[in-house]
Amino acid sequence: MAEQTAERSRAPRRREAAPEAPKEFEEVVINIDRVARVVKGGRRFRFKALVVVGNKKDKVGVGVSKGGDVQAAIAKATDVAKKNMITIPVLNNTIPHDAEVKLSGARVLIKPAAPGTGVIAGGVVRQIIGVTGIHNLLSKSLGSTNKVNIAYATIEALKTLVPRSEWLNTPKKKAPVKKEAAEEETK
């Protein structure tokens, strides 16, 4: 009987009708918080989503946004992350040099690692590195445990990375002259 009704239905099913296009970016929801705004009648609740987007090669972005429900917050945060994508230099599945960044209360330290080490990072840093093309990395998150601040500090650390081709061929800068030394030379 069920076979007969399935044959009679001529409307295509939604899943079968829409072809699955390959996604360009991988999206990972790191955190969802319920936030409240106190108004005269009580509290108004919304949701704040922290999302990281990457292409598993060399692009990554982080976005935070609020929405009336969880799905709206995730969609808005994903759009913000896609607008704020950065390109990171990946060298032999790791980063070219170490970097340490302090952003608000969070300090993040990232270091290149030997092949086969894997990603040694905790929580938010691991999830951000997971959507990049980096497979060997050492990391330490210091200071704040706020997930949003750690995410932004990680992105800032990745922004500071300079490709190896650029730092090998750059001319050396002269050391800045101190005021006292400059005054003694003029005397």
| Overall helicity | 25-40%
What is the overall number of helices?
Answer: 7
Largest sheet, in brief, is: 4 strands, antiparallel
In order across it, which strands form the biggest sheet? 1-2-3-4
Spell out the helices and strands N to C: HHEEEHEEEEHEHHH
Shape from CA axes? globular
- What is the architecture at the second tier of CATH? 2-Layer Sandwich
Uncertain segments are: none
What's the helix and strand layout?
Elements: H1 2-8, H2 14-17, E1 26-39, E2 42-54, E3 59-67, H3 70-83, E4 86-87, E5 99-103, E6 106-112, E7 119-120, H4 123-130, E8 137-143, H5 147-159, H6 164-169, H7 179-186
Can you put this structure into words, describing what you see?
There is one protein chain. The protein is an alpha+beta fold. The protein has a single domain, classed as Ribosomal Protein S5, domain 2 (2-Layer Sandwich), CATH 3.30.230. The chain contains seven helices and eight strands; from the N terminus they run H-H-E-E-E-H-E-E-E-E-H-E-H-H-H. The chain has a four-stranded antiparallel sheet, with helices on both faces. A four-stranded mixed sheet has the order 5-6-8-7.
Concise synopsis of the structure shown:
The chain has a four-stranded antiparallel β-sheet with strand order 1-2-3-4, with helices on both faces. It has a four-stranded mixed β-sheet with strand order 5-6-8-7.
